[in-house]
Write a structure and sequence with these properties.
The complex is a heterodimer of chains A (411) and B (152). Chain A is an all-alpha fold and 411 residues long. Chain A has 15 helices and 2 strands. By secondary structure, chain B is an all-alpha fold. Chain B contains 7 helices and no strands. The chains are: A mainly alpha (411), B mainly alpha (152). The interface between A and B is medium-sized, with 19 and 17 residues.
């Protein structure tokens, strides 16, 4: 064996296992951390919005303190939802071309329309109609730049008569009703992108959009629990335990349905013994053991399911302090579990060979365009935006008529 | 009869959406690259940019036709009419271009077998042979690759 061949083999051999096609042997997965974050962030948006619509559409009174907070959370994450895709594509100098040359037949390009609809026609409008009365009042009382921002956001409408405010609420309600199917469309679309790839048994699946929507609801509610608790601790204000219990209850319900549908998917595949099932089994047991079996199944599903389930039954026997800690732990576990689920879907589908008889290896890098450091930066960006939004629109010093956490004292 | 009046906040939102729509259309006319839609749903100039970035490898059939029009004419009559010269003869060498007397590679039978070795994955009507039952890899002793329809 020549020296050159030995060097090539030493380079290539550890990168795959089993039977892999020659053109896959040296291939690096084309989609990395950024494409994992894209469905994750989009799902958090859809979930947080559905959480808010529980108040507006389904009139869940107990959740009123987190109504505006969840809408602002959805906005902060929605503003970052396209970033992973744009960063993945590279060429920032051409990014505007996506908008000026919209494509109508590419399923990938349709995201532009879905995104624009959701941001412009749903989220911003609902927020504006909900905040309009407050914006007018704050614009009159707040000095300086802050007041200027509020006045600018009123777009010159200063009518705060009870009839006008009632109309605002009515419109906000209509938009919220429109928003629920839109949120399903937004995230169902992300599931569709993967589910429509029929050549890949890990992705090609008609219930993929449903799995994505349900996991989005789970992660969105968990995110709202997390944000609400962190905000309360930061402000050193008491948590509204009733609100937290109801959020925990909805998180539990969403988790039950999500876990049931995902389990059904696996049971169906196992029983019908589809062609690709062997490689999927191998992936779950070996290749994705930590992210799928430990991260997604144990940490992201079973532990929160058992904890939240027992809290539904024995809530009154558990003290507030312990319940708070349990909710917080569950929220973090669910958030990490759903992140692991996105990783398993996106990366899992690229780890095995098209022969369905071999797997490739992958090393997550620290730096670079697909490194985890950039992923971490991207994930912290919505929280930074949310902090600014909270300072502007949920400030404790502002009198408000809306549903806000830690309602300021009128005195 | 009272005339319908749009509530001020709705009117402003409609106005704002209209303004956004108009500014989008203006931005679109100004920013769409000039050569977009020239050939299809992409920037036509991208093709020219691409050719300057990569040195062309194959000369193409037309280039061979300059010196060998008779061969191309023969080739066009038979079953190999869609094949490119360089598919069998290999990439045209710089020596061959500067000095036409330096010959290109004579293709061996192995080249023929790339397509004609029997394989269940090929279409049934496609001519295939099992080379060990045939006559080894000496195809051109009997067959004429430029006139494959001629029976040997």
């Amino acid at each position: 064996m020549s020296l050159q061949l030995t060097a090539i083999l030493a380079e290539v051999a550890p990168h795959f296992d089993g039977y892999v096609y020659p053109n896959e042997s040296g291939s690096h997965p084309l989609w990395g951390v950024l494409i994992v974050l894209y469905p994750y962030i989009t799902g958090l948006v859809a979930g947080a919005f559905i959480m808010a619509s529980l108040v507006r559409v389904f009139r869940v009174k107990a959740l009123e303190p987190v109504y505006r907070l969840s809408l602002l959370t959805a906005l902060a994450f929605l503003l970052c939802a396209t970033l992973p895709l744009l960063l993945h594509l590279g060429h920032p100098e051409r990014s505007y071309q996506i908008m000026i040359t919209p494509h109508l037949t590419s399923p990938m390009a349709i995201f532009g329309f879905v995104y624009a609809w959701y941001l412009m026609a749903v989220l911003l409008l609902e927020l504006w109609f909900d905040y309009r009365g407050d914006l007018v009042n704050w614009g009159r009382t707040e000095p300086g730049l802050r007041g200027f921002i509020y006045r600018l956001l009123t777009v010159g409408v200063s009518d705060v008569s009870p009839a006008a405010i009632a109309l605002d609420h009515k419109l906000s309600w209509i938009i919220s009703i429109l928003g629920i199917p839109s949120a399903f469309l937004l995230h169902g679309y992300v599931g569709f992108i993967f589910g429509s790839i029929k050549a890949n048994p890990w992705w090609g699946n008609a219930i993929m959009p449903i799995i994505f929507i349900l996991s989005a609801m789970v992660s969105g509610i968990a995110l709202c629990v997390f944000v609400y608790m962190v905000l309360s601790w930061r402000r050193r204000r008491a948590l509204d335990m009733r609100c937290l219990d109801v959020m925990g209850m909805y998180l539990f319900y969403a988790l039950v349905i999500d876990a049931a549908i995902e389990a059904l998917d696996w049971i169906h595949r196992a029983y019908s013994a589809e062609e690709g099932f062997h490689v999927m089994e191998y992936m779950a047991q070996q290749r994705l053991f930590y992210t799928l079996s430990i991260g997604q199944l144990l940490m992201g599903t079973l532990i929160p399911l058992l904890t939240l389930g027992s809290l539904q039954v024995a809530r009154k026997f558990v003290s507030d302090a312990i319940r708070t800690r349990l909710y917080f732990t569950c929220a973090i576990f669910v958030l990490l579990g759903v992140l692991a689920m996105r990783w398993n879907v996106v990366m899992g589908g690229q780890f095995f060979s098209k022969s369905l008889r071999g797997v490739m290896s992958y090393k997550l890098e620290f730096a670079g365009a697909e490194g985890w450091f950039l992923g971490l930066m991207l994930l912290s960006l919505p929280f930074i935006i949310l902090t600014v939004l909270i300072k502007l629109f949920l400030s404790q010093s502002l009198l408000t008529s809306g549903h806000v956490p830690h309602r300021p004292d009128p005195t | 009869m009272r005339c319908f009046q749009m509530p001020p906040q709705v009117f402003r939102v409609v106005l704002l959406i209209f303004a956004i729509g108009v500014s989008y259309l203006v931005a679109r006319t100004l920013l769409t690259p000039a050569s977009f839609h020239e050939y299809g749903f992409y920037r036509g100039a991208a093709l020219a940019e691409h050719t300057t970035r990569h040195e062309p490898v194959f000369a193409g059939k037309l280039a061979c036709g300059v010196r060998h029009p008779d061969v191309l004419k023969t080739l066009a009559k038979g079953g190999h009419k869609n094949l490119s010269c360089e598919a069998c003869h290999g990439v045209v060498s710089p020596q061959h271009l500067t000095d036409p007397t330096s010959n290109m590679d004579k293709p061996s039978g192995a080249i023929c077998l790339r397509c004609h070795e029997a394989s269940p994955s090929r279409p049934a009507g496609f001519r295939q042979i099992v080379v060990k039952d045939h006559y080894a890899e000496k195809c051109i002793e009997c067959h004429l690759p430029h006139e494959p329809n001629e029976v040997p």
